[in-house]
Write a sequence for this structure.
DNA sequence: ATAAAATAGCACCAAAATAGTGCCATACAA
DNA sequence: TTGTATGGCACTATTTTGGTGCTATTTTAT
């Protein structure tokens, strides 16, 4: 939601306060998330009065898969890696890997810009008309 | 994994013991899961010696979406329903709904039979050759 | 009959993941 | 110099998930 908000104000630095005033999110929590995204260079940050965050790239080139990876790590539905003890007897590993790939493709193919544009609630329309 | 196992023994009743001997799963836990699936008529059950579980339908007609729904409820990545307090200011609801639909489509389009057939590990090949 | 093999039900505990805070440091602008 | 803002990181609280305890019921074989 915060990224969608930033996408609606391209180029402008928006403070956490501004964002949560609009979106009604817990302020401290969103602050932590934005810090994470800043560290991952998904957003730019500037401090001090007038500062805040802005998207580090065009929202049209920011797929949801990237966001998920930054916030939750690699897209996956089963951690076959790091030594799953069931692997030797597992009957579905490759199949699940394919399902995961399909899901990642879904997330690759939707951008933050689309996420916002596709949403037709009053709040989303209002912010787009500004 | 258990459903894939049952898919490899079509028509035959397999006990929890048999399944966990092969798949190395915690017995009691798998038992609970199979009970759930039995209640949801995903599998048939018979009691007593020689009893166990078998698929209630052809594995080729059992999509993963059905399995997920039975075990974890409706496929979703955000519970917009039952009164999300953020809904009035949410900028991404419709977009996320579309992502969810795409993911469900992925799960609709892979069956338990495919899940097993696609898997090319030694264990999976072995069970298929029997 | 009786014993043994299996599922049925359901509450309960334990571990892990997620949501959310506290606290202080640092940077920037007026 | 003061107020506004992000940076870092440990910490608590809540929820979800993984797993167990216990008992009842059904079925087959002796
Ligand atoms: S899919 Fe098979 S191998 Fe991968 S995590 Fe699940 S059990 Fe382990
Ligand atoms: S998407 Fe928007 S409406 Fe749906 S749950 Fe998340 S915040 Fe609430």
């Amino acid at each position: 939601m915060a990224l969608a908000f930033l996408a609606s104000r391209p180029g402008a630095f928006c403070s956490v306060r501004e964002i949560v005033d609009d979106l009604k999110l817990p302020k401290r929590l969103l602050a932590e998330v934005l810090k994470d995204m800043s560290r991952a260079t998904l957003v730019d940050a500037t401090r001090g009065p007038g500062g805040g965050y802005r998207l580090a790239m065009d929202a049209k080139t920011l797929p949801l898969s990237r966001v998920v990876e930054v916030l939750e790590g690699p897209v996956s539905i089963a951690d076959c890696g790091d030594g799953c003890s069931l692997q030797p007897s597992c009957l579905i590993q490759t199949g699940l890997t394919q399902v995961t790939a399909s899901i990642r493709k879904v997330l690759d193919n939707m951008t933050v810009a689309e996420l916002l544009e596709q949403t037709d609630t009053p709040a989303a329309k209002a912010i787009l008309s500004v």
Summary: Chain A touches chain B at residues 1, 4-5, 8, 22-25, 64, 85-96, 98-99, 102-103, 106-107, 110, 114-124, 127 (CB under 8 Å).
